[in-house]
From TrEMBL:
Name used for this protein in its record: Bifunctional protein FolD
UniProt domain Tetrahydrofolate dehydrogenase/cyclohydrolase NAD(P)-binding: residue ranges: 142-283
UniProt-listed SUPFAM superfamilies: Aminoacid dehydrogenase-like, N-terminal domain, NAD(P)-binding Rossmann-fold domains
A GO BP annotation: L-histidine biosynthetic process
Organism classification: Bacteria, Bacillati, Bacillota, Clostridia, Eubacteriales
One Gene Ontology term of the molecular function aspect: methenyltetrahydrofolate cyclohydrolase activity
Catalytic function, reaction form: (6R)-5,10-methylene-5,6,7,8-tetrahydrofolate + NADP(+) = (6R)-5,10-methenyltetrahydrofolate + NADPH; (6R)-5,10-methenyltetrahydrofolate + H2O = (6R)-10-formyltetrahydrofolate + H(+)
Alphabetical list of InterPro entries matching this protein: Aminoacid_DH-like_N_sf, NAD(P)-bd_dom_sf, THF_DH/CycHdrlase, THF_DH/CycHdrlase_cat_dom, THF_DH/CycHdrlase_NAD-bd_dom
Record flagged with keyword Protein transport: no
Length: 286
């Protein structure tokens, strides 16, 4: 089989830089007002802390403010809701990122209903979800889902009429992302743990998105010739290293382009969060 070194890496940094420019132009219209992001974390999960750190770095680099709120793992459901309500109502807070999942004793569903849709930057409220599913772009989509679309747009990869396979049906990536693809006029297949022939469904995709949350579950056997492979997964492998849902190296000579992990979609997710923050602030002040 022909083995080239022709696969193009779709790097997130370039996409993030383009979003930064956009954000700064919008920021300039706010007459010096600097929006503030509230990051809400319950407990000390390493996963949450990594994302929080990444988000804080991104906000700093984009010139945006962050206010961190950290609560103990054993905070009661009632007290957390009380604290959440204060942040939600605070006029000095333009947008909210709540790290998830919350500890099991806190009812996340209730928070989804409580959060002000205008501050719900990661698209967890019913109002934003409905808008995303209705194709109404005034709703905030989950940042990771939107980041996938941003990567494809930044690299001028056409979506219209393309066969897209999304592996994963979560409410944070798979489902909303599938709707964003439909809005771009793609033909979407959603795969999950009960899909009968995952290899076949993936192999015929022109754009393959891995969003299942299982380290290196997809390799070249799942990728069609010249496919564009987008890896949303952020896992830690047995050696403690960050790795995606896709075995990137194995795609060489088969896929035409692929996002690496780290350095792919992850870098774009926090840029989208920043974009949403400035949008939220602009709307609240307009
Ligand atoms: N509402 C919510 N949305 C999330 O998206 C969310 C969450 N809660 N809770 C926690 C998980 C986990 N997660 C991570 C993201 C990046 C890194 C990470 O390590 N990022 C590296 C590199 C990333 C890359 O370049 O691909 C960095 O920022 O330097 C880890 C974990 C997000 N999550």
């Amino acid at each position: 089989m022909e083995r080239g070194t022709t696969m193009e890496a779709l790097k997130g940094a370039a996409v993030s830089a383009a979003i930064k420019e956009q954000v700064q132009n919008r920021l300039a219209e706010l007459d010096g007002y600097i929006p503030t992001l509230a990051i809400i974390r319950v407990g000390e999960k390493p996963d949450d802390i990594s994302y929080e750190k990444g988000a804080m770095k991104k906000m700093a680099s984009f010139g945006l403010n962050v206010q961190s709120y950290t609560f103990p793992e054993d905070i009661s459901d009632a007290l957390f809701k009380e604290e959440f309500a204060k942040i939600n109502a605070d006029k000095a807070i333009d947008g909210i990122l709540m790290l998830r999942p919350l500890p099991k004793h806190i009812c996340e569903k209730d928070i989804e209903k409580m959060i002000d849709p205008a501050k719900d930057l990661d698209g967890i409220s019913p109002e934003n979800i409905a808008k995303v599913f209705a194709g109404d772009s005034t709703g905030f989509a989950p940042c990771t889902a939107e980041a996938v679309i941003e990567v494809l747009k930044a690299y001028n990869i056409p979506m219209q009429g393309k066969r897209v396979t999304v592996v994963g049906r979560s409410m944070v990536v798979g489902k909303p992302l599938s709707m964003l693809f439909v809005k771009e006029n793609a033909t979407v297949t959603i795969c999950h743990t009960r899909t009968a022939d995952l290899k076949a469904e993936c192999s015929r995709a022109e754009i393959l998105v891995a969003a299942a949350g299982r380290a290196r579950m997809l390799d070249s056997a799942y990728a069609g010739k010249d496919a564009v492979v987008i890896d949303v997964g952020i896992n830690v492998d047995e050696n403690g290293r960050l790795c995606g849902d896709v075995d990137y190296e194995s795609l060489e000579g088969i896929a035409s382009m692929a996002t690496p992990v780290p350095g792919g979609v992850g870098a774009v997710t926090t840029a989208v969060l920043a974009k949403h923050l400035v949008q939220a602030a602009a709307r609240a002040r307009g």
